[in-house]
Design brief:
The complex is a heterotetramer, with two copies of chain A (about 230 residues) and two copies of chain B (about 220 residues). Chain A has about 230 residues and is of the alpha/beta class. Chain A is built from six helices and eleven strands. Chain A has a single domain, classed as Glutaconate Coenzyme A-transferase, CATH 3.40.1080. Chain B is α/β, with parallel strands linked by helices and about 220 residues long. Chain B has one domain: 3-Layer(aba) Sandwich (Glutaconate Coenzyme A-transferase), CATH 3.40.1080. The chains are: A alpha/beta (about 230), B alpha/beta (about 220). At the A-B interface, helix 4, helix 5 and helix 6 of A face helix 3 and helix 4 of B.
């Protein structure tokens, strides 16, 4: 019996089933807390026409940015992009479709998607270009817009530790969008720094419960820093 | 004399109160952290998921997993909390952050703010700015009163795509401190040596000037 | 012979698959945990916030902070996770729980279920039942085929206030196993020694009977 | 400077400001994880006409049930009630208004209230008495109902450990509704078993961040068990 053992041995198994045209939800904020090896595998697979949902789109040669080179991404739903020149080029030329979404709305859309909530109301974006075409409704005298949730065929996340049941713990601000992304994928794959035995993670302090995770793979991370600022 | 970036930050720091949870945007707002008055405590929220943001790290402390909303390496203070982006914006959108300070391209007399998009230029995105202006209890905008061509950024109506509507409460520029209410900019203070006339001239929107306009203490 | 409570639980346990996350309701469904086949693993979810529910505690293990959704003292298995009620129902409503097993007063041929309210009697509330029937991927209902007066609980249309609509996929009663689809009860299996005639007689809703109806293996 | 020191010394201070007619959101599931001392203080204060939002309403002589005796509760919003005879009597006589809400919807209403989301859609309750008077809307071919969020003038929660900044950690299934309740109060009071120094709680494993908590008090808990079931 396979039971709840979600650990896979190689990246091919980890991303098995990802196909052209699918929606891929990715955790991470900037280059922090991104599933580096899973992204590299998608590049290797050369899966195309992807709709990618992620707060950012990496840089030219790292993170989701590496999927831009081969034009694997058809559309990106993000809150802040354009930290790389290939992105700019494709966006300007119109070969890359960009849907900008406020950061909090994006996080909530993923959470709602994972939680079976198809839509919610938020004040964020009311009266701005983000509200175009969206229903406006007043509650308690204040106008809000309706935002629909996001789910995807695949979600890829980066965690610090996992057990083989798929329970995940994140480290510091590398947590960011990963917990919400993990809930919103039909198949969710977690790339982690360390795999521990069930029971080693404190049950009350598991950030993502195994029920949301389908596959776990141990990765090696470069953890590139986008803006190294220090004090003396 | 118009204020320096540091002086704007110093003036904004006078808006802080003991026990405030504060979110500081990129640019001048970030500098405010350096001028928190000694007799109060504030806690900084970074919208990528950190409550209790500390100073930049030393070389030895640098950790790729510890960054702020500007993607810069950062530290956490003792007693900080780290959480996911949905929880972070629950704090922001639920009105739990006491004050947010952010920059802008334009503000108008209705309290509307434009800060993220200039048509014709490449749009990088709004990040968390729309959530912050819609959610924070108090919003202070920092910017220069006019652009480099001398054109006012304090308008009767914003010309650029908006970040949020009816949300800006206070503005600290290089020339003045203004409150936005009842469809007008109310002049509260002027930069040392700056005349009310100059402020009037550089304010395109409706400006309400009281009889006495004190100089800022910066 | 109609099935005992234990036999119903045994038959339901045959619906379990390796790797299933399962939520078991109060009553007969709870008994299912005792009959998980040896060659598979399932993980039990308790909607008050526990994934990986274990057996009842020994006297020494009793802990007021560890209870199940029925408010009974309980334990957690190794590798369990404990979380808040919003996250718990995110699992349930987001369709992440593979199977929920629960009791009912009535079920109808549309897959509607009534399980929480009898007008005229004091209503205690639906607890998590409405969330479970709206959210789980698969729902198995356990109940007696008829009430104590011999009146069918398998109806063409529920008479009691509903818990959920178009959601029941399978029913295991003391007399039969039935699938609900295309607006009818489809008879899959009968209890050992129970005739199709008896089942037909005690099913008020539309019953589809195949040529051969095997006996359950309980 | 008071700064962020939220610890108060006595129950009077803890519940200061609670007035007749207010909405009170309470954490807890059954008798598990309930702020025993804060409830006792509300009884002592004899605050009346309260609207109480809580998954349950305690038993006759424990938990929120003790507020029923003196008819302090005007209305209760809960998912499962009637574990006590005073409740039954008042509900039947009509002196107590009961609004039954599905458990998951109740949890989500509190979370939404705390997160600035005035309403959301859920499939839960569609086609049932819960849906009466609520908007129905289809998403992706499935009908959902609109549910509005809940906030209250006060929220009372029970945690295991707190630091003086109001960061909270819960223990086992005593967590339940407490984290959501904590976000939904205009004033949130936490009664805890232990107060630790800032920094003692792992920053990545704080269940309720101090920003949601206004007052912290150390309590003594009876922790009554509603259904003691053991195996031999």
């Amino acid at each position: 019996m396979a039971g709840f053992d979600k650990v896979v041995d190689n990246y091919e198994q980890a991303m098995q089933g990802l196909q052209d045209g699918m929606t891929l939800i990715a955790g991470g904020f900037g280059l922090c807390g991104i599933p580096e090896g899973l992204i590299a595998e998608i590049k290797r697979m050369n899966t195309r026409e992807l709709t990618v949902v992620s707060n950012n789109c990496g840089v030219d040669d790292f993170g989701l940015g590496i999927l831009l080179e081969g034009q694997q991404i058809k559309k990106i739903i993000a809150s802040y992009v354009g930290e790389n020149s290939i992105f700019e080029k494709q966006a300007i030329e119109g070969t890359l479709d960009v849907e900008l979404t406020p950061q909090g709305t994006l996080a909530e859309k993923m959470r709602a998607g994972g939680a079976g909530i198809p839509a919610f109301y938020t004040a964020t974006g009311f009266g701005t270009p983000v509200a175009e075409g969206k229903e406006v409704r007043e509650f308690d005298g204040r106008p809000y817009i309706m935002e629909e949730s996001i789910t995807g065929e695949f979600a890829i996340v980066k965690a610090w530790k996992a057990d083989r049941y798929g329970n995940l713990v994140y480290r510091d601000t590398a947590m960011n969008f990963n917990p919400m992304a993990a809930t919103a994928g039909k198949i969710t794959v977690a790339e982690v720094e360390e795999i521990v035995e069930p029971g080693e993670l404190d049950p009350c302090h598991i950030h993502t419960q195994g029920i949301f995770v389908d596959r776990v793979i141990k990765g090696n991370f470069e953890k590139r820093i986008e803006r190294r600022v220090t004090r003396s | 004399m118009s204020l320096s970036r540091e002086q704007i930050a110093i003036r904004v720091s006078q808006e802080l109160k003991d026990g405030y949870y504060v979110n500081l945007g990129i640019g001048i707002p970030t500098l405010v952290a350096n001028y928190v008055p000694d007799d109060i405590e504030v806690m900084l929220q970074s919208e990528n998921g950190l409550l209790g943001m500390g100073p930049y790290p030393t070389e030895e402390e640098v950790d790729a997993d510890m960054i702020n909303a500007g993607k810069e390496t950062v530290t956490a203070v003792t007693g900080a909390a780290i959480f996911n982006s949905a929880d972070s914006f629950a704090m922001i959108r639920g009105g739990h952050v006491d004050l947010t300070v952010l920059g802008a391209f334009e503000v108008d007399q209705q309290g509307n703010i434009a800060s993220w998009m200039i048509p014709g230029k490449l749009v990088k995105g709004m990040g968390g700015a729309m959530d912050l202006v819609a959610g924070a209890k108090n919003i202070v905008v920092t910017m220069t009163h006019a652009n480099k061509k001398g054109e006012s950024k304090m308008l009767s109506e914003c010309t650029l795509p908006l970040t949020g509507v009816n949300c800006v409460k206070k503005i600290v520029t290089d020339l003045a401190v203004l409150e936005v209410k009842d469809g007008a900019f109310h002049l509260l203070e002027r930069a040392p040596g700056v005349s009310v006339d100059e402020i009037q001239q550089k304010t395109a929107g409706k400006l309400v000037v009281p009889e006495f306009v004190p100089e800022m203490n910066v």
